[in-house]
Amino acid sequence: MSNLVEIILQDNEFALIQKLIFNTVGITLDDSKKSLVKNRLLKRLNFYGLKKFSDYLRIVQYNRDEIAEMVNQITTNETYFFREQSHFDFLVKTIESLKSNSMIRVWSAAASLGAEAYSISMVLDSILGASKYQVLGTDINTQVLEIAKKGVYPLPWVDKIPLSYKQAYCLKGKNQYEKQFLITPELQKNVRFSQANLLEVQTGIGKFDIIFLRNVLIYFNDEIKALVIENILRNLHEGGYLIISLTENLRNINNPHLKQIDTSIYKKV
Ligand SMILES: C[S@@+](CC[C@H](N)C(=O)[O-])C[C@H]1O[C@@H](n2cnc3c(N)ncnc32)[C@H](O)[C@@H]1O
Q1: 202 Cβ below 6 A of ligand 1
Q2: Distance between CA atoms of 206 and 203, rounded to whole angstroms?
Q3: Active site residues per annotation
Q4: 193 — phi, psi (to 5°)?
Q5: Three-class secondary structure of residue 262 per DSSP
Q6: What is the pLDDT of residue 100?
Q7: pLDDT tens figures, 221-257
Q8: Is ligand 1 within 6 A of the CB of residue 211?
């Protein structure tokens, strides 16, 4: 007789997960996500040797660390180098005009595995040199941040990086690392990663000239979007730029400090 018993995620258990995730990170998980959520969280049930979601949810409710693990499983972290090239063209143009600033600071505010933050730093480094810029990458997901900090990626990911940057800032692995590449330690020195929840006001990270907030707003409803934008703008210098994804919009967000200057690019006024 098989002792494989299917683990069921009941509707009331899924409703509790929806509520916990929304309250913690602002992500709306609609009902169509039920089986995806179930499959992703089964890893955590296996970790504890549990056979019921109700037992797992009891752990989650009493243990903040387990909520963080749950968030790590639920967030979608797709990313790649030089995603949406037009934003990097804008960066080149804008940096030329900001060149006289003593230090240029850029924030990748939903950094995922770090590909966005390192793409930004390649552009800045090649124009400004190492001493004139800083890049900060933040994300809610602690697992992706650990990978970002290492700066090691699967070799096929290098294909998205323009040749001159590839030659200057990427090192191909050898022997057991031959299927990977490393962002050069020199470039890594200018990029810092830390955990930050976009639902919270960020104190202690200072102000930025440009903020990339791409491919994360799609997970939020309008109310959360407005809150996130309000929070983010506190860390943007007046006259600085906010860049969202080409596939996102701020149509229903009436923030008086935002002036759209191009598709998906806003200036703080
Ligand atoms: C699809 S990735 C986008 C990565 C990158 N910006 C890009 O465009 O390639 C979305 C990221 O947003 C993060 N995220 C979701 N909710 C968040 C929140 N409340 N605070 C901070 N990061 C969040 C996820 O963990 C995930 O890594």
Answers
A1: no
A2: 7
A3: 40, 139
A4: -125, 140
A5: strand
A6: 77
A7: 999 999 999 999 999 999 999 999 999 999 999 999 9
A8: no
